[in-house]
Specification:
The chain has one domain: 3-Layer(aba) Sandwich (Rossmann fold). About 50% of the residues lie in helices and about 10% in strands. It is built from twelve helices and seven strands.
Length: about 300
Amino acid sequence: MRRFFTRFMIILLPFLVVFLLIEYKTSRLPNSYAQKKHSLREQAQKVNVLVLGSSHAFDDINPDFFSCQGYNLSNVSQSLFYDTRLCLNYLDRLPHLRGVIITVSYFSLFYELNDLPEGWRDYFYYRYFGIRYPSLDLSDPKMFSYMALYTRDFISAMVFSKLNNKDEFGDIQPNGWKKVPAPADSVAISDSTGHENALFHNSLVRMKNLKANVRYLRELLTELHKRNIRVCFVTTPVYQTYSRYLSPFILQANQNIIRGLCREFNAGHFNYFNDPRFLKSDFSDNDHLNIAGAEKFSRILDRDFVSKTCTR
């Protein structure tokens, strides 16, 4: 029995070594979560304005065009639960924070990441920020292994050095903003793709999530108000090929809820949803801005909120 066990371990050892090497390598991958954690930690002592939200903030708001130092802590599909937890977790490490921009997308108030196929992102927040969504499966391998966070094809590409970090994770800048070029394909901004995207975002809207999301926001706003940190809600620009297919009921509900929170906590709301200043040439797709559009929008946002927050 002892000889069998020894031989078994000798056979198993190379596989264990390979597993540990891949696990180590995946733990060092510069994904958007790891990059944001590292770059915000480096800049924490200087940050005056923090940007929260989903990809509409990630792509659209470039803090390089702010009057004072900003950092974009938004991410793809980031829900209000994570906006709240991230901001509250970092508050004590941001001694010069004066303002917070909370980007509210069409679906934000009615959406929860854990409900969707993209729920795998929940585990990245847990592994990189220590934030656990209450219903997260504690027995899932992704709770313990970095390798389990990625697909088999992704791991294979990494092992054989076929991985292009910029293609896989996006061109993320030191300020947390994702650099997205203008579309190469004219179909990227069209009635058909806009309709398809609007249908997908309408599928994210679930009334059961509204109460919890408003509770998260109230928790965040209460703490920011206590610390005398200014807050503004921002609705980012979208193109007409997307906006025309959205529910007027949800759009009005968003306005009513945000307006109520603004009154309660003395916050501001800047709605650029159908702003005519943004042309088709400013977009990378039907509801996200490209590099030039992000510069244009960030300068407007600076004039409307950031510069006034920095100088108060």
